[in-house]
Amino acid sequence: MGGAERELDSLEARLIDAVERLGDAGRAMLRDAAKREGLSVTQAQLLLRVTSPTAGPQSTGSFARWLEVSAPTVSDAAAALVRKGLLESVPDLADSRRSSWVPTGLGGEVAERLHGWRDPLTAGLSAGSPQDRATALRVLLGTIASLNRTGRITVARTCLTCRFLSDEHPDGRAGEWCGLLEAPLGAADLRVDCPEHESAAR
Ligand code: SF4
Questions:
Q1: Least crowded by CB within 10 Å, which of 53, 87, 88, 115?
Q2: Per-residue confidence (pLDDT) for residue 30, from 0 to 100
């Protein structure tokens, strides 16, 4: 078997192909869902992020890093969402020079419908066993952590990049433990977007 064939046949190459196919399909489904609501993909992503319960208060810059776009792109998308009556800008009580975006009632309804773009993926994943899903989560989070260390993924608020993660319980037993929540973390408990995350790289 030649080098090219080995590369095509390797498990890593097939996993990358599979992730790429899922990413392409996911982007197409999100684009269709956004179109049905009369939104661009960036506007839909911003509305979903603003209404995410795990996002917490965020600046234009942090939205931009999360969406991997420029700050002006986020500002333009937010302005469009405000014009469409889906977001409103409210003053930040802690700092009068700042404001933050909150969804209007209509914005919340649109976000709820937009979330449906994930349903076909959820149905596909449900076919695997809980153990297989937990293993897949760990492998993907490990890959995200690797890309985060090399600067290819800017924001990674995951357990595997968090300073609170320990591989030992306080009583010395083996097993992952969150020092902030003071709770064990089973393989299926690892978080992808934790509001309490603090980078282990600090
Ligand atoms: S704080 Fe959040 S990201 Fe960090 S280890 Fe605990 S659950 Fe995971």
A1: 53
A2: 96
Q: How far apart are CA 50 and CA 63, in angstroms?
A: 9
Alpha helices in the chain (DSSP H): 3-9, 11-36, 41-50, 60-67, 71-83, 105-114, 119-126, 130-149
54 and 88 in one domain? yes
- Cα(168) to centroid(ligand 1), Å: 14
What is the mean pLDDT of the segment spanning 45-59?
A: 84
List all residues whose CB is within 6 A of at least one atom of ligand 1.
159, 162, 164-165, 178, 180-181, 191, 194, 196-197
Domain hosting residue 10, numbered range: 3-121
Ligand 1 atom 6 nearest Cα: 178
Number of domains in the chain: 2
Q: What is the pLDDT of residue 4?
A: 58
151 and 115 fall within a common domain: no
pLDDT digits (tens, 9 = 90+) for 96-155: 777 788 899 999 999 999 999 999 999 999 999 999 999 999 999 999 999 999 999 888
Q: Is the pLDDT of residue 87 over 90?
A: yes
